[in-house]
Structure formats: structure tokens, C-alpha cells
Amino acid sequence: DPYARLLLEALKQSGCTVFNDRHFSCENCDGCVGGGFDAATSQIVLCQNNIRRQSHMNRVVTHELIHAFDHCRAHVDWFKNVKHLACSEIRAANLSGDCTLMNEIARFKFGLKGHHQTCVRDRAIRSILAVRKVSKETAEKAVDEVFDACFNDLEPFGRIPHSKADAKRAYRDFQNRDRYTANL
């Protein structure tokens, strides 16, 4: 999957190499979540009982790898600072493919103008509520306060990858990043 390949390479370049047997765990989970990122162990948990399709698993892996990337490159205070969590959830919803038009149509949720941003905001709030015992108002406030900055942080993709083809182009661009500035 080009999304995951790009993120794994970005993690490695950031000094956080991911080992499949150490950093990924398949488990049965409560509720209907597809996965999670455990910051204490830097481990991605895939909920094998809630993932039914390869495309869903690819999105979950990408979403959680974005959290792992944020954990690696920034000093994220996952447990005490809800704004940090909100920012990573915004980035994950924005960049993982969670809010593509096809996924939204499959959920019977779609609109025209500004729908991608609405989807990202809603999914970030839902994710915060799923992992933290905070009120909906607290989650909404945290998302609103950091939304613009975090929505516009497109690292390491450099763009919002709206499809696998976009993700492949982003991966090629990522691989060639240093070539553009090497002769300056």
C-alpha cells in the first residue's frame, strides 16, 4: 500500500524504524473500532474482529501510522493534552483516506462544498471521544482550536492523497525530496 510505504519510510527517516513483529499487534477489540495506537509501547493494534476488508485494514494501518509518525516527530502529550490528540486525529482523518468521497458515499454521508473538512472534523471528534473520557464539548473545542494548523500540516505526504494514485505520486515525491535541494 503506497500510504503505508510512505509512512514507514518517513518514520525511518525520522529515526523511528518500525518492525512488523514488534510494532504491530492483531487483537480482538471491544466495540467497533478498527485499531489504535498505543503511545506507551509505540505499537499499532489492529482489531482483527472488526476489520472485514483489505481496504479497511489499509486505511486503519495508515491512520495509525500517522499517529506513530506524529509520536516520532513531535513531543505529543497523548494523555494530558487533548489538543495534541485532536491535532493527530485531524491529521489522521485528513491524510489516511478516511474521508474520501467513496468512503463517505458508502457511509451515506456526502455533500458538496467543504465536505472533506466537515468529515475530518467529525471523525476527529469521534476518535477523541472513543479514546478519552472527555465531554463532546471538550472534544469539539479542542478540534476547533487546532483545526486549521493541523488540517494544513500535510507531512509527510506533501498533499492530501485522495486516492491510491495520489499516494503513489506522494511516495515518489517523498523519495525524491532530497534530490530537489541537494544542489542548492
From TrEMBL:
Belongs to the peptidase M76 family. GO terms for molecular function: metal ion binding; metalloendopeptidase activity. InterPro entries: Peptidase_M76_ATP23. GO terms for cellular component: mitochondrion. Keywords: Hydrolase, Metal-binding, Metalloprotease, Protease. It is an enzyme of class 3 (hydrolase). GO terms for biological process: mitochondrial protein processing; mitochondrial proton-transporting ATP synthase complex assembly. Its EC number is 3.4.24.-. This is Mitochondrial inner membrane protease ATP23. Pfam families: Peptidase_M76 (PF09768). The lineage of its organism: Eukaryota, Metazoa, Chordata, Craniata, Vertebrata. It comes from Quiscalus mexicanus (Great-tailed grackle).
